[in-house]
Write a structure and sequence with these properties.
Largest sheet: 7 strands, antiparallel
Strand content: over 45%
Order of helices and strands: EEEEEEEEEE
Radius of gyration: 13 Å
Shape: globular
CATH class: Mainly Beta
Structural class: mainly beta
Oligomer: single chain
């Protein structure tokens, strides 16, 4: 199972933007690659404007990463339902993403600066 998940530290600075607001900005992002899926960038919780996020009732389970909790993003112009997620108690294979959140690229802009 650990061969299915690959996590490495990204270089450079990464940002998440939506609704005219910067939601996250970090130089400490991780990229998670899971099998053949599109890579996902995870941002440290400390580098996210958590005041824009509210936990939702949404949960999901991944046999490789564990249980994900979802968050909606609230900006002045829009609410993006279940647009971010976090593995708060990830499996050992995904331990590096503990205290990190990922964002849905269909709902927000995720850019390397």
């Amino acid at each position: 199972m650990s061969n299915h998940i690959k996590i490495h530290k990204e270089t450079g600075k990464w940002v998440v933007r939506t609704g005219g607001a910067v939601i996250a900005e970090t130089s400490n992002a991780f990229e998670l690659i899971e099998g053949e899926k599109t890579p996902v960038i995870y941002f440290p919780r400390a580098d996210i404007a958590m005041a824009f996020l509210d936990q939702t009732e949404q949960f999901s389970h991944c046999p490789h990463k564990g249980d994900a909790r979802y968050f909606s993003i609230h900006t002045k112009s829009v609410v993006l339902e279940n647009s971010a997620w976090s593995y708060e108690d990830p499996s050992p294979a995904a331990a590096r993403i503990k205290n990190h959140l990922a964002f849905d690229p269909a709902q927000v802009a995720i850019e390397e600066l």
